[in-house]
Design a protein that fits this description.
The chain has 17 helices and 13 strands. It has about 425 residues and is an alpha/beta fold. It has one domain: Rossmann fold (3-Layer(aba) Sandwich), CATH 3.40.50. A hairpin with a 5-residue loop joins β1 and β2. The chain starts with a helix and ends with a helix.
Length: about 425
C-alpha cells in the first residue's frame, strides 16, 4: 500500500533507474566490493536505496566471460545477499552466468533513503508486505538486471532462485513476469520455499505505517531479545541440520543482527509481522499454488532443491508440490535443513549450475556429482562425515511422514 509519489518514481523508466543505480553505487557504506570478489551496489527504487550484489560470469582462468544467463537470488526473512556468499561466485564460474542477489525493502541493507523519505512513507500508509516485495523484484529484473542482460540485442535467459520467503516471492514474481511477457523467465529454483506468508483477516491492522503505538510498545518489549545474538544463534541451530557452516561463518550472526540496529528496523518488523498474504481471502497456500500453476502453464521450468531435515518447511510441502505438478523437479538433500544453499553449498551449486545451463538436475550423473562435491569439500576441511550425505530426486511426491500423509488425505477428501 504505497502512495502516488512512490508510484510515480517507479514509473521513471529504465534510463532513470540505471542513472540511479550509478549514483547510489558510488556512495554508501555498502557500495564497493561484495562477497568473494563481486560488486556491492545500490539502486534507487521508490523511496528506498536497494542493496544488491552482482557477480559477473568468468571463464576457467577467472577472466571475464560472456554470460549465458542472468540468475537472481532472493534470501529469506531476516537475511540478505550475504547469505549467498558461498553460491554467487562459484555459480558465476561454473555456470558461466551473471549472478545477482537483492535485499528486499526493510531487510538486509535496503532501507528508506533518509528521514524525509521515511516520513513520506508513513504519510502514504506504506506497508512492508509481500506485494511490495514482488513489485520490487519485478522492477529490479526489468531495470537493473535486464538493463545489462542482452547479448547482441537478444535477452539472455533469466532464472530466479529463492530461499524460504525469497522462494515464495520469486515464484510469485516469476509467474507475473511470465504472464506479462511470455518467455521472460526461463526457470525458478526454490530452496525450501515457504508455502505461505503473511497474516490472515484476523488482524484489523494490515501493516501500514505508522505502526499503532500499542503494537509498537508490545513488540519493543521483546525486540532486544528477538534481535540478540543469543536468539539468532538459537534459531539458526534449530533450522540448520548441519551446524558446521555456522561454526565456519562467524560473521553470519553479525550480518543478520546488523539490520536490526537500523533506526527504522522495529517499525519495519511490526509492519512485516502483521501485513497480509498475497491472497489474504483465499486458502493458506493459494499464492504459491497459483504461482506454480501459472509457471507450469507457461512452460517455465520449476525446480525445488530442499533440505530434508527442515523443521519449518518440512518435506511434505515439497512433495505436495510434486504431486500437484509432476513436471516439477524435486531434489532432497540430506542432512540439510532450512538453508541447503548454505549448509551444503557445493551440492546446491552443482544442482543450480546444471539447472541454469538448461540441463536436468535430477539426472543420475548430476545427483552423483552434487553428492561427491559436497563429500569432497567436507573431506578437504577434515570435517567428520556424521553419516552419508545424499542427494536424491523424488519421482512421485508420495508422502513419507505422518504429516505428509495427513495433508495428502485432506486434499483427496476435499477433491471428493
Amino acid at each position: 500500500a504505497t502512495g502516488s509519489s512512490c508510484a510515480s518514481s517507479a514509473a521513471a523508466g529504465s534510463d532513470a533507474d540505471a542513472d540511479a543505480t550509478r549514483r547510489a553505487s558510488s556512495r554508501g557504506a555498502g557500495s564497493g566490493s561484495g562477497s568473494s570478489g563481486g560488486e556491492s551496489r545500490y539502486w534507487r527504487w521508490r523511496s528506498f536505496d536497494v542493496h544488491y550484489e552482482v557477480h559477473r560470469a568468468t571463464g576457467g582462468a577467472g577472466a571475464p566471460a560472456e554470460a549465458s544467463a542472468d540468475v537472481v537470488f532472493l534470501a529469506g526473512f531476516g537475511c540478505g545477499s550475504f547469505h549467498f556468499a558461498n553460491n554467487l561466485a562459484p555459480l558465476s564460474r561454473a555456470g558461466g552466468v551473471d549472478c545477482w542477489a537483492m535485499d528486499i525493502a526493510g531487510q538486509g541493507s535496503s532501507w528508506p533513503v533518509d528521514e524525509v523519505a521515511l516520513d513520506a512513507l508513513k504519510r502514504e500508509g506504506h506497508a512492508y508486505d509481500a506485494r511490495l516485495w514482488v513489485e520490487q523484484l519485478k522492477e529490479f529484473v526489468r531495470h537493473v538486471v535486464r538493463a545489462r542482460g542482452e547479448t547482441g540485442g537478444v535477452k539472455r535467459p533469466l532464472y530466479l532462485v529463492g530461499n524460504s520467503l525469497g522462494g515464495y516471492l520469486s515464484a510469485a514474481a516469476a509467474a507475473e513476469l511470465a504472464k506479462e511477457a511470455p518467455g521472460a523467465v526461463s526457470g525458478v529454483a526454490l530452496l525450501n520455499a515457504t508455502p505461505f506468508w503473511g497474516s490472515t483477516a484476523v488482524f484489523p491492522y494490515k501493516g501500514a505505517l505508522p505502526v499503532p503505538p500499542l503494537l509498537l510498545r508490545l513488540i519493543s518489549a521483546y525486540w532486544s531479545y528477538f534481535s540478540s545474538e543469543v536468539n539468532i544463534k538459537f534459531l539458526l541451530n534449530q533450522v540448520y541440520a548441519r551446524h558446521e557452516p555456522l561454526d565456519e561463518d562467524p560473521q553470519l550472526i553479525a550480518a543478520i543482527r546488523a539490520p536490526t540496529r537500523h533506526s527504522h528496523a522495529l517499525e519495519a518488523f511490526c509492519s512485516i509481522l502483521t501485513s497480509p498474504a498475497l491472497r489474504p481471502d483465499e486458502h493458506l497456500t493459494a499464492a504459491l499454488d497459483g504461482a506454480l500453476d501459472e509457471l507450469h502453464a507457461r512452460g517455465v521450468r520449476v525446480a525445488m532443491f530442499n533440505g530434508a531435515q527442515d523443521p519449518w518447511v518440512v518435506p511434505a510441502w515439497g512433495r505436495r508440490a510434486k504431486r500437484r505438478e509432476p513436471q516439477t523437479t524435486l531434489v532432497e538433500l540430506s542432512p540439510a535443513g532450512h538453508c541447503p544453499h548454505h549448509e551444503a553449498p557445493h551440492a546446491a551449486n552443482a544442482l543450480l549450475a546444471e539447472f541454469v545451463r538448461g540441463g536436468d538436475p535430477a539426472a543420475a550423473e548430476v545427483l552423483a556429482e552434487a553428492q561427491r562435491a559436497e563429500g569432497d569439500a567436507r573431506a578437504a576441511r577434515h570435517l567428520p562425515q556424521q553419516g552419508a550425505f545424499s542427494v536424491v530426486a523424488v519421482e512421485d511426491g508420495e508422502p513419507t511422514t505422518a504429516l505428509g500423509r495427513f495433508v495428502a488425505q485432506a486434499e483427496r477428501s476435499e477433491a471428493e
